[in-house]
Amino acid sequence: MKVLLVIQHRLELWQVPAWFLQRLGQQFAALEIVHRDSYDDIESQIRDAEVLFTLSLRPEQFAHAQQLRWIHSPAAAVHQLLFPELARSEVILTNSRDVHGPVVAEHVMALILALARRIPQAVRFQQQRVWGQESIWQGPPHPREIAAATLGLIGLGSIGRAVAKHASALGMRVIAVRENPEKPAPPGVEQVFASQYLDLLLQQSDYVLLAPPLTPQTRGMIGAAQLARMKPEACLINVGRGPLIDEAALLAALRDHKIGGAALDVFNEEPLPAGSPLWDLDNLLITPHTAGMTAKLWERHYALFSENLRRYLNGEPLLAMVDKSKGY
């Protein structure tokens, strides 16, 4: 049986390390483990592969995959893989949401604390050698405590659940929206609204976290109308995908100080162009899609993929299965 790993990425962190391949070969000695760091001539390699480990795949490449039974994505988002031919097929799709969720949740807490304590403004004053105590206090918004503040979660997947745990431990009130509100609320979540009651969450929240999958239903879900529902001092955080937000509407809301601030780790276009007006906003904290970065990333990938490979060989249910009809 052939297992094909194809990752082509400019960032070293996302490239498959040599030890990962060596360990796979040792643990699964009976399998043919093939690695490619480029999609050049991938059609010939995918033709007889039964398992594929990759970030992306095009329909014309998929057409050559005559023996493919399972695709594993080392990303959490899989919208780039859900073209009609693959979505309609019997090929199993798994993702790495549980690899990234706990790490991204820590990043979210860092962003909340940075916004609350106005850390970005303090850094700017430090770079200017200015004692900015009065300016930081005057705001808006004023530095504040997160204990007793309300955090609204849009998305209760691996990121949302981990954030709820951390936030509630720090005394935050956590509420959420999701498609199936009748399900029991995860630990740390006080109240769950149905998706159609998003406005109720926005009106109550001091911090709003966007972490849902990108689907036709969630694309552009935060626009001018939704931003207008938020409290004047509330902050918006996006660690999901850039297209969840109407960036032009957010730019206008931040420029006019309609909301207290925002923190974005993801954008419609990445890398964010140097000419983007988002760079110039003093009430926007930008992190360059680093929420999932960790020195332990590939150890976490190996734990999940090797366990799923063992399960696949033994005919057991796989972890982190994607419902291709829903997109997550």
Order of helices and strands: EHEHEHEHEHHHEHEEHEHEHEEH
Number of strands: 12
Which segments are poorly predicted (pLDDT under 50) over 5 or more consecutive residues? none
Query: What structural class results from the helix and strand content?
Result: alpha/beta
The backbone outline, from C-alpha atoms, is elongated
Q: Give the amount of beta strand, in percent.
A: 15-25%
| Count of all domains | 2
- The percent of residues in helical segments reads 25-40%
Count up the helices: 12
**Strands in their spatial order, largest beta sheet:** 8-7-6-9-10-11-12
Biggest β-sheet: count, sense, barrel?
A: 7 strands, parallel
Q: Given this structure, which CATH class of the largest domain is correct?
A: Alpha Beta
Q: What is the architecture of the largest domain at the second tier of CATH? A: 3-Layer(aba) Sandwich
CATH topology of the largest domain: Rossmann fold
Distance linking N and C termini: 27 Å
Query: Radius of gyration from the CA trace?
Result: 21 Å
CATH superfamily of the largest domain: NAD(P)-binding Rossmann-like Domain
Give the mean pLDDT.
97
Keywords:
2 domains, alpha/beta, Rossmann fold, five-stranded parallel beta sheet, 328 residues, elongated, seven-stranded parallel beta sheet
What does this protein structure show overall?
With 328 residues, the protein is α/β, with parallel strands linked by helices. It folds into two domains: 118 residues, NAD(P)-binding Rossmann-like Domain (Rossmann fold); 187 residues, Rossmann fold (3-Layer(aba) Sandwich). Helices cover 34% and strands 15% of the residues. Helix 11 links the parallel strand 10 and strand 11. Helix 5 packs across helix 8. It is elongated, with a radius of gyration of 21 Å. The two termini are 27 Å apart.
